[in-house]
Write a structure and sequence with these properties.
- This protein has 206 residues and is mainly α.
- It has 2 domains: 43 residues, Arc Repressor Mutant, subunit A; 131 residues.
- The chain is 65% helix and 0% strand.
- It has 9 helices and no strands.
- It is elongated, with a radius of gyration of 19 Å.
- The termini are far apart.
- The relative contact order is 0.11.
Length: 206
């Protein structure tokens, strides 16, 4: 349990502290933790998590946002002049790395957000933005279809990656195969849009 006293933390610091506590509980296999469990683990008053997040679903959405924010940051750190296909495949590697870094936590978050009756959040919009950022200006895409690709691929890539994560969450894709499967799905989507003069993305290229 945290050494912070109830009410001692405020604003963003309190939010970070509570989310850190939620991650610890999930990492320990406590996916069914209650909001009281969370308050105790974070060392804050019972009302604080409710005031800041509204409830457990809000906690899970905030944890998902953390992951996507991390993906964005890593993509920005590794930005270069590569063509769109190479940037997207780099984005796949980054996204998989973030999710695989804490599998117990991330599977629990995925399962929670995908459960029946789960409150809708902004995961799709945030994921779409990530893949749009990965595509960049579309360098290396066929000129005649580049505009269409830039308009449609962010959604398609978001849906494909979410699908791979869903099968991973369900245990149907092994830990060591997630990167390969996610890369193969992204490569298939990119294939028809890559400039004929450029090398096509492949599932085995690294």
């Amino acid at each position: 349990m945290s050494e912070h006293k109830p009410g001692q933390l405020r604003g963003d610091a309190a939010r970070r502290h509570i989310l850190d506590a939620a991650e610890r509980l999930l990492a320990e296999g406590e996916a069914d933790f209650s909001m009281r469990d969370l308050a105790d683990a974070a060392g804050v008053s019972f009302a604080t998590p409710f005031n800041l997040f509204g409830g457990k679903t809000g906690i899970m959405h905030a944890l998902s946002d953390r992951r996507i924010d991390r993906m964005h940051a890593l993509l920005a750190e590794n930005a270069d002049g590569s063509d769109a296909a190479a940037r997207v495949l780099r984005g796949v590697a980054i996204a998989v790395g973030v999710m695989a870094a804490a599998p117990a936590v991330n599977r629990a978050v995925m399962a929670s957000l995908g459960s029946p009756g789960a409150v809708a959040g902004a995961v799709l919009a945030r994921s779409r933005a990530f893949w749009g950022e990965a595509l960049g200006g579309g360098a290396g895409l066929k000129p005649e279809t580049a505009e269409h690709a830039l308009a449609t691929l962010p959604d398609a890539l978001a849906l494909a990656f979410r699908g791979a994560l869903s099968f991973w969450t369900a245990g149907e894709i092994d830990e060591h195969l997630l990167a390969e499967q996610a890369r193969a799905a992204a490569s298939a989507l990119l294939f028809g849009f890559v400039d004929a003069e450029k090398e096509r993305p492949s599932r085995t290229a690294r």
